Records
---
Amino acid sequence: MTMIPQPRQGLRAWLLTDTPTSRTHARLSALYQSWLSFRGNQMAMFGLGILVFLVFVAAFAPLLAPHDPFTQNLLARLRPPGSAGYLLGSDSLGRDILSRLIYGSRITLYIVTLVAIVAPVVGLFVGTVAGYTGGWVDIVLMRITDIFLAFPRLVLALAFVAALGAGIENAVLAISLTAWPPYARIARAETLTMRNSDFIHAVRLQGAGPLRIIIRHIWPLCISSLVVRVTLDMAGIILAAAGLGFLGLGAQPPTPEWGAMISDGRRFILDHWWVATMPGLAIFTVSLAFNLLGDGLRDVLDPKEGSQ
Amino acid sequence: MLDDGKRPLVRVRNLKMHFPIYRGVMRRQVGEVRAVDGISFDIYAGETLGLVGESGCGKSSAGRAILRLYDVTDGEISIDGNEIAHLAGDELRRLRPEMQMIFQDPQASLNPRMTVAAIIAEPLDEHQTLSRNARMERVFELMDAVGLNRNFANRYPHEFSGGQRQRIGIARALALNPKFIVCDEPIAALDVSIQAQVVNLLEDLQEKFGLTYLFISHDLSMVRHLATRVAVMYLGKVVELADSAQLYGDPKHPYTEALLSAVPEPDPTLENTRERIILEGDVPSPSDPPEGCNFCTRCPRVMDICRRESPEFKQLEDGRFVACHLM
C-alpha cells in the first residue's frame, strides 16, 4: 500500500524545495514564498479580491450588463436605485447606471494599465541612467525631472490634454507624462545606493559595460520598489483620469467613463443623488483596493525588510 | 628594483590615487584625499604579496586602483606585460579576465536577486560563448573547486553562511581563469573558525591554478602565514617591502616595528616580555599629509630631516625596500 501523492501536494513540495533544479524553478519557488507571505495579509487579499472582481467584470461586461450602456430611454430617466430593471437607478438620459459602471470599468482598467506600463518604464530608464552615469547627464536629467515635479499633477495633465486634444489616449499620455518623475527619483536613489556596492564592482571587474550593468543588475533590483510605488499610485492615476473626465477632457460622451458620469450627475446632485454617487463609490472602491494591495505588496517586496 | 630570475607579473610604478573633494553650491574642488600617493612594487608570478597597514592607510584603494575599478590619478600599472593604468572602455574590458578580486564583505559582493549559478556564470556570459550545458558544467566545476555542494547551484545568496558566500565570491573570481587576484581583506568579515578554511582554500587554489595574489589585510599573523613578501603601507605610501621572514624577524622601519609589536604572542611567558611600541596621536588626514616623511608626526625616532624631506623608497643590500631616513 503506497500513498499516491496528490498532484497539488506534489506541486507545493516542488515549489517549496530547498534544492531547486533550475533557474526557473528557483525563481518560481521564490515567487511562491512571496505569495505565501502575501496571503497572510488579509487587507491586501481583500484589495486583490476587489481587483480580480474588477478585471472579471471588465472582461465579461457584455454578459453582465443588464442594459446597453448607450441606449437612452427618456421615459425612464432619473429612476432611483432599486426600481424595476434599474438596480442602481438611471441617469438623466434614462441609461442604466449599473451597465454604464460595468462598461466604465473597461476604460478605467485601460487607462490604469497603460499609465502603469508607460510611466514606470520611462522613470526607471531616466532614473537609472542618471544615477549610474552621474556627472552632467545626471544633472540634466534630474533638472528635467524637477521641472515636471514643480507643477501640480492635475494642472500639468490638463495643460497636456488641452494641447493634445481631449480623448482617452491623450489622457493616458498626459497622465503618464506627469506620473514618471517620482519613479525616476526612486530609481535614481536606488541606483545611487547600488552604484558603489561590491557586487556592481564585481560585475565591472568581469568586464561588463554600463548598459549591461544597468539592465541586468540595476533594473531587477529597482523593480520591486517601483512595483510597490506603482500600486500605491494607481489610486492617484484613477483619480487623475476621473478628474480629467469630470472636467470634460478625458473620455468623451457618451463613453461611460466614471469621472464623466460624476460630472453628468453634478447637475442633479441635490434631487437625484445616486447619479453622481454610484460612479463615485466605484472610484472609491477601486482606489481603496489598489491602496490595500500596494500596502501588502510593500510588506512582501520591500528589499530592505526581508532577505529576499 | 629589478630582481632577475623571477618574472614580475604585476608591476606598479609610482601609482597615485587622489580623490577630489568638492564643496559648496558650485561643487568647486577644494582639495583631494591622497588615498594612494606614489607606490611602487612588483608582484612575481605565483607569489603572494601581503599588503598590511592600519585602517584608512589606503590598502583597499591601492588594490582597487590596481584593478582599475577607479580611474587612477597617475602612475603605471602593468599586468602580464599589458599597461593598463590609463586604458578605458573596450580595451580595458578585454583584459579584465586576467585580473579579478575577492571582496571583504561576501554579502555585499553578491547580487541578492541572482542565484548562485547565475552569479558564477555571469563572467562566462560576458566573455565566452558557451552553450547552456557547457556553461552549467563549468559552473559545477567551479563550485567543486571551491568546495560548494552542486545542489546549492540554484539557491539565493541569503540562504548561505558567510563562509559559503565567500566561496561563491571566490568561484566567481576564478571563472575566467585569472592570473592575478586581489584579495581585499577576504577573511575580515568571517568568523575565526571559518577564516582558516577560507585561507586554506585560497592556498590550495593558488597551488592548483598557479595564481598570484595581492593579499590585503590588517591581520598580521595571517599575512605572515600566507605571504611570500609583505608590503607595509602608511598614509598612502609603502614604507617597507621585504620577504615575509625578513620583515617579521627584523623590521627596519619604525612604523613596521610598532605595527609588529602589536601582534599578540601565543606563548604567555614571551607575551609578558613583549614590548609594545605605542604610537602617539592619530594618523594625519590623507587630505592634508604632513610635510616631509608622512610618519614624522608619530615616529618615536623622528629627526630634523624627517620634517623637511620625504624619504626615498630605496633598496637595502639584502634586497628589501625601506622608505626611512634612518637607513
Note: The CA atoms of residues 50 and 230 of chain B lie 4 Å apart.
---
Amino acid sequence: MSAFLELRDVHKRFGDNEVLRGVDLGVDEHQVVCLIGPSGCGKSTLLRCINALEPIDRGEIDIDGERVSGRGVDVNALRADVGIVFQSFNLFPHMSVLENVALAPRKVLKLSPREATQRAFELLTRIGLDEKAHEYPDRLSGGQQQRVAIVRALAMQPRVMLLDEVTSALDPELVSEVLTLITQLATEGMTMLLATHEMGFARDVSSKVVFLYQGRIEEQGPPEQMFNDPHSERTRGFLRSIIEAKRL
Amino acid sequence: MPFRGNLVSASIAALASLVVAVVTIAMLWKFDQSLHVSAARHVVARVVEIPLAIATLAVPFYGLRAFATSQRAGRLAARGEYQSARVAVEDSRDHIWVVVGIGMTALVGAFAAFLLSANDGAVRSVLFDWSLIWRSRTGLVKGFWLNIKLFVVSEILVLVWALLVAIVRLLPGRACAPVRFLAIAYTDIFRGVPAVITIYLIVLGFALAGVPVFDSMSKDGQVFWLSVLALVLVYGAYVAEVYRAGIESIHWSQTAAARSLGLSQWQTMRHVVIPQAVRRIIPPLLNDFVALQKDTALVSFVGVVEILNYAGLYKNRFFNLSPVTGAAIAYLIITIPVTRFVDYLIRIDKERIQAQ
C-alpha cells in the first residue's frame, strides 16, 4: 500500500545544478516527518516541488493516490490542499493580520466574507492573537508573524502541511512559541513534512526523520534510531557537527 | 590623535560671509530704488525689505564667530588642551554650516531682487503686472477649465491603459512573446517621440483623415477627444514603465506565498502584487501626472482654445507677458496642493503599515 504523500524518483535541476537526484519518500496520514541535512542539500526545493511552486523534471508525486506532479494537474486546487509555510513568513504587508488569513478562504474556497472572517478570527483566537487581528504584520514580532503565517495556511484546511525551516529566521527567544504551535498541530493529527535545523524538536515530535544529502535520501528511520544509532557515516558526521555547534 | 585645526576654511567662510552680506544688501537697495509706487505701498515694501536686510547680517555674524572660534581652538591646542580644542573646532564647523545655509539662501534672494530691479524694474512690469493678470482673469479661468477637463479625463484613462500595457509586457512564456513585443514597441515609440509631434500627428492627422468615430463628433468634441487620445498614448507609455518597475519591485516571495495558498496568477496580481506595487509607485506616478497636467498646454498648438491660447490673446492685446504669468499661476494653484496632498496620503499609509 502506498503512503498518503508519495514521492517516487523525484529529480529537479536548476541549470547545471542538480538539486534533487532521485528522491523516494512516503509520508503516511497523521505522520510528522522531519527533513534534516546540511544547507543546500535540497530540503527547501523538495518542499517547493511538492507544492508545485517548482515543476519537477522527472519522477512522480502522489497525494492520497492522486497524481499531483506533471501536466494536467490543477495546481490551484492542489495548493489549496497542501499548505506551505516559509522561513521568511511572507505575510502580505499591505493587509491586516485578519485579512492575511481570510484572503485565500474567500478567494479560493469562495467563502462569504463573513464566513472567511469568522474562520480567520477563530484561528487567531486559537493562537492568542485575536487582539492583533486588525494590526498590520510589521507591528508583530517575528514569532507572532510566523504563527500568523501558519494559521494562514491552516485556514485553507489543508490535508498536508509543509514547513520550510519556519524557525530559522527567528530570534532564539521567539522559537519556542512557534514550535509549541507545531507540536499542537502534530498532536491533533495533522500530516506534516518539515525541513528543520531544530534537532531536539525533530527528535521529540517526528515519527520519522529523513537525512537528505546532496539531493538524495542518505538515511531515514525513527528518530531514536536516527539520533542514537545512525547507520550512515555521513549522517553521523552531520549530527556530530550539530552537536559541536551545541544545537542538540 | 593629532589636532587638526580649521583656520583655513573658517577664514574663507568669514570672508565669503562678508561678501554675501554686502552683495545681498546692495541688491535689496537697488530693488528698493527701482520701485516706482505710491508712498504708502513703498512703506509696505520696506516693511519686508528691512527685516530681510537685518536677517542677512546673521551671515557675517556666524562667519566671524567661526573664525574666532577656530582661532581659539588653535590657542587651546598650543596649550596642549586637545579635548577642548577639538570641541572648539566642532563649534566652528557648525558656524560654517550656518554661513553656508543662510548665505546661499541670501544669495539666491539677492539674485531674484537683482533680476526684478534690472532695467529699472522692467522685468517686474513686463512679467508681473498684477492689474493685467486681474484683467485677463475671465479668459484664463475659461481656458483653464478646458485644461482641467483634459487632464482629469486623460489621467483616469492613462491609469487603466498603462496598467494594461504593463501587465501585457509582463505576461510570461514563449507564446506571449509577440504581444509582449507589441507592448515594448509601443512604449519605445511613444516615449521616443516628442509629445508635441504626437499631438500634431494625431489631432490634426486623424481629423484630416476622417478617422471613424471621431469624424462623427462635433468640431469641438473631436479636437477634445483627439487631444485626450494623444495625451493618453504619450503618457500611457511613461506610466506603463512606472507600473512595470513597481510590479517587478515586489519580491517573488510574495507571489510564492499567494500562489502557495491556491490563489491564481490573476488573483495574486490583483490582491497581492498590484496593491503593493501601486503604493510604491505613487511618487513617480504623481511626477508623470504633474507633467501631463503641464503638457495639456501643448494642445494649444493644434488650435484647442485652452489657457495658453487665452493668455496669448491677452498678451497681444496688452503687449505684456503678465497674462502668461497668470496662466503659470493657475497651474501652480492645481499642482502644488495636489503634490502636498499625495505626500500626505503616502505618509499616512506608511504610518499605518509600518512598525513604529
Note: The longest strand of chain A covers residues 17-27.
---
Amino acid sequence: MNLQRKLQQLLSSLVQPLTAVLIGLLTGAVAISLVGASVLETYKVMWDGAFGNFYFVTATLARATPIIFIGLGLAIAFRAGVFNMGAEGQMVLGAVSAALAALYVPGPGIIKILSALAAGFLAGGLWSLLAGWMETRFKVQLLISTLLLNYVAVLFAGYLVSEPFQDKSGSAALAQTPMIDQMAWLPKLFQGMSVHMGFVIAIVLAIILFIILRFTSLGYEVRMLGYNPFFAEYGGINKIKVLLFSMFFSGGIAGLAGTVEVLGSQYRYVEGSLTVPGYAWTGLMAALLANSNPIGTAVAAILLAALQTGAMGMERNTEVPLEIASVIQGVLILFVTAKITINWWKVKKKAGDIHGAA
Amino acid sequence: MTYVLEMKEMTKKYGEFLANDRISIHLKKGEVLAIVGENGAGKTTLMRMLYGLEQPTSGEIILGGKNVKFSGPLDAIENGIGMVHQHFMLFSDFSVTENIVIGHEPKRNGFFNRKAAAEKVKELSEQYKINVNPLKKAGDCSIGEQQRIEILKVLYQGADIIILDEPTAVLTPIEVEELLKTIQFLADQGKSIILITHKLPEVMKVADQITVLRNGKVTGNVLKQNTDVEQLATMMVGRELQKLTDRIQVNGEPLLMVDNLSIGGKDEKPILDQLSLTVHRGEIVGIAGVSGNGQSELIQAISGLRKIDRGSVRLGETTLTGKSVATRRNAGLAHIPEDRYLWGAAKEATVEETGLMGYYRKKMFNQSSFILLSPFRKLVRGWIERFEIKTPSLDGKSGNLSGGNLQKLIVARELGFETDFLIAAEPTRGVDIGAMEYIHEAIIEKRNNGDGILLVSSELSEILALSDRIAVMYEGKIVDILDRKEATEERLSVLMAGGNENESSKKTTTTA
C-alpha cells in the first residue's frame, strides 16, 4: 500500500518532464519533416549516434559528465530557493584554478589531482559565495549578480591563459595553459574511450546529494528554505547561513564540472572549451527538468547529452542539420521555464503580501 | 404569501462530494435572512449558485414568482441580486465614486459624466444613510469604508436582494455595530438581505429568519424570536458545545518580561512605542486591538523575527533581546503564528515535514545530523489522533490539508515542544467550532499546567473566554490592562478605538 503510493508519487513527478520531452520530440518531428526527411529514420540515426554502440555510449557519458556536475550544483541552489545563474563563470574559474593547481602544486599525481579538485571546488564556491554575500549584505538580486559575474569570470580566465599562464611551448599562440603532467590525469574508464573517472565521481556525488537533501537536518533546512523562507525563519533556521552554504556548494560543484573536464579530457584549460558547448545552460536545463532532484538531474543530464551527441551523429549521416537538437531543446526550455516562472511569481506575490499586510 | 426569492432543493455535487444536498431557502421583501454554518457547511456554494458563479446539479431558483437560471454574475445583477464579497474588489487608485459607478457610468455625449456620477452617489449615500466621501481614493479608505463602497455599488446597480458574505470578519467592533444598523435600515427600506456568517451574536441582533447548514444540509430554519445562540450553535455543530475546563488559580512568578520595547519612531510614528508587558506562569494574557496597531510586530519582536530599536525581552532568567529565533525557541518559547500559510507551514512540504520543524534539531530525532523519522512519525500520529487531524497520510502535501486541519497540526506541533511559554496568535482563525473547542481546551490546559501564554486575537469573544488579563493595544502602545472580571466587550471596544474609558459615556464614537 505504502509502496504503491510512493510509486504513484514517483510516476506523477515524472509526468511533467516526460510530457515536456515528448512535446520537444514532436516539435522536432515537425521540423524534420519540414526539411523533407523521414522522421522515424532521422530519430533512429539520432538514437544510434547517442547509444548505437559502445563507443557512442561512452562519448555520450563523457559529454554528460560536466553537465551532471553543473546540474547538481544548480539543484542545490534551486532547492534552497535561490537562482544561481552563474554556473558558467563558476565552472570556468574552477577549471582554470584546477589546471594551475595541477601544473604548479609539487608532488605525486594523487596530490596534484586532490589539490586540483580542491582548488576547482574552492574557486567556483567562493565566486558563487561572493554573489550570495552581496545578496545577504546589500540585497543585490542573485539572479542578476550571478549572471553578470559570469562575464567577469570568463574574461578573467581568458586573460590568465592569454597572458601570465599562456602555453608558450607550441608554435601557435593559443589562449590555453600548458598541458598538465600525465600523472595528474583522471584515468579513463575504458581503454580508448573518452569517458573518464569524472563520470563516476559525478554519479557518486548525485547519490550523496540525494541522501543529504532527503535524510539529514541540513537537507531539511535547505528544502524548507526553498519551499517557504518565512516558515524556515519562523522555525529557527538561520536563513543567511543556509543560503550562503547553498551558494558555496552550488558554485563549488559547478567548479568541479570545470575541474574534471580539465583533469579528465582536455588536460589543460583552453579558452572557450567549456563555454562554447554550453555545458552550463544544458546543466541548468537538466536541473529544471528534474525539478532539482539530484538523481533525476543526473538522468536528465545524460538524456540531454544524448540529444546533443545524437544530433551530431544525425548531421554526419543525414541531410538534417544539427540545429534540430536546438529546436528540441528550445521547446524543452520553454516548457520548463514556464513552470518555473509561475512558481517564482507565486513566491514573490506571497512575499509582497506580507509586506503589504505589515 | 409571496416570496421575493425561493431556492428549492438546491443540490451541488463536485464529483462524489455533495457540497449542497437539497437545500431550500426563502426570503420575503424587507427581510433579513441569516445563513449560518461552519466552514465547509455549504454556505458559499449555495450563494455562488444564486449569484450565477456555479451551476446547480439540480434544484430551482424562483425569483419574484418566475423560474430563473443565471449563467453568470452579470445575469444575477440584472435580475436585482447583488453580492458584497468577503474580499473587496475595488480599484484602489480610483475614487469612491468611480468605484461605485464602474461598469454603469452615467454618460454625456458618450463621455463619462463625473458630475452626474458624484451626484448619484451622494443621493444614494443620503437615501440609505451610508456615509462615504465620494472624492476620496478607494485605496485611502478604511476597511469599513471600503465595505460601504461595496454596498453602495450593489445598491447603485439596482439590487433588491443583497448578499453579504461574512461581512463582519474584517471589521472592528464599532464598525460591526454600524454595519448591523445599515443592514437593518436597508431592510426597513424594502431591500431583502442574505447574511452569510458564523458569528451567532450578530445573527441574533439583526436577522429575522435563520437557516442553519451543516455538511451541506439544512439542519434548522427558525425565526429569531423562537431561538437563541445556544440552540443555533447546537444545530451548527450537531451536538452541544462543551464548557471550557475550569481554570485553576495559579499565582506564578513573572515569566515573559517585555520592557520598554520600541520599533521605529525617530521621524515617523513608532510601530511599537515603549511597550512593557509581563506574562506570569499559569496565566493567559490576551492582547486585544484592532489589527494593525502593532500586535503582529510585537509577536515578531518577541519571537525574534523582527529587529527592535530599543527595549528588552526576557524569558525567565534568559535575556532574549537580540538573540536568534532558534536560541529563543531553545530557551522555551513556542509560537502559533498568526498566518498559518505564511509562517506556519510550507504548502509544498509534506505533512510530516511541516510537523518536523524545530523537532529535527532535537536529540531524540537526530543522530549525527541524520533525521530519525520513525520515532518522529510516532509523535505525529499521536497529534493526529489527539487533535483529530484529517489527513490521508503523512506524505500528503501540507497545502492539501483544509485550513482547520493545518491549523490543528501547527497547534499540535507548537504545544508538543512543551515549552514554558507560548505565543498563540489567532490560534483559531478560520477553523470550525469543533477545532476551536479543541484548541481552546489545549490552551487552558497548558495554562493550568503553570505555563505562560500570550494570546493575540482579533476575536474579542476568544480573548474574553480565555484570558486572565487583557491588554488593549492601540497605535503601538498598551493603553490599558483589564482583569478578567472587569473586562466586557463594550469596555474593550472603546479602548480598542483609542477612546478613553471615562469619555465614552459623553461622546458617541465614530470610526475613521
Note: DSSP finds 17 helices and 24 strands in chain B.
---
Amino acid sequence: MSVESLVAQLKTGLDAPICLTWELTYACNLQCVHCLSSSGQRDERELSTAEAKRVLDELRDLQVFYINIGGGEPMVRRDFFELVEHSVGNGIGVKFSTNGAFIDAEKARRLASMDYLDIQISLDGVDAAPPADEAPADGSAGQ
Amino acid sequence: MIDAERMYDRRMEHEEVPEQEIELEEELLVEEISIDGMCGVY
Amino acid sequence: MSTDLLTRPLELHPQVALRSEPFGALAYHYGNRRLVFLKHADMVAVARVLADHPSLESALRASGIDERRWPSFEKAFDSLLGSEIVRER
C-alpha cells in the first residue's frame, strides 16, 4: 500500500482548480504603461452582474478555494462589493489587486470587516526604473 | 478518462499486503504545498 | 513530535475545507491560507471522523487502520497539527 509521489498522483490532475485568476473588467481609472493586461478601456463584452454571480456559483459547486480578482481596476465596477460579498458568502475566498484609488475610509472599513479577503495594492516607485544596462551601484556588474 | 477511473479504483482497493511491506514502507501521508503567489495578478 | 498524540482528542480546524480528489483530498485552511495534500484515502477517512472519537488512536482503530501503520499516521497528524489543519479539542 505505497503512497506514490505527488508527481505521479497528479498525473490525472485535480477534480477542480485550487484558485482562479479573474480579470473582472478592463476598465481602469489609469492606463499604466506597464500594465500586464493593457487595461484602461472597458470591454463591452464584460460579464453582467448576474453572469458573474453565476460563474461564482459554479466555482462554489466546484469547491474552488479562492479567486484572485484583477483587471483593469476591479473597484471601478459598480457591483464590485456585491460580487465580493457573493463570493465570500459562498465560501470562496477573495484576493484582489487594486491601485487603491477608490479606497476611502468607509470602503476600507467595509473591506476590513469581510471574511477571507486579501488585498494587493499596486504602488508606484518614486523614479522611473533605471535602464537595464546601467551598472549596479555595488559593482556587481559582469557577474 | 477511463485510465483515470481505473487508477482511482486500484488505489481505493484494500488489498492484502505482505507483512514485510507494511513494516518497510514509510508512508508520507501528507504533503504541504506552498501556493503563495501561484495564482495572482502582478 | 509528542509521543502521546495517539491519546489526544483531535478535530479538523473549523476553518478547513476538505475536498476529495482522486488521490485522497486537498485540505485548505481559510485562516492561514495553507494547502495540504492528504495523499491516501485512509488518511482522509480518519481525518473526517476525528471529531467523533475520544482520541486519534480510537479514530485509527475505527477506520480499520493496521496498527503497524500507526507511526506513519501519527507523524502525518502531527504535521497537520503543526500547520493547524487539525487541532486538539
Note: Chain A touches chain B at residues 1-3, 6, 12, 18-21, 23, 36, 66, 68-70, 95-97, 120 (CB under 8 Å).
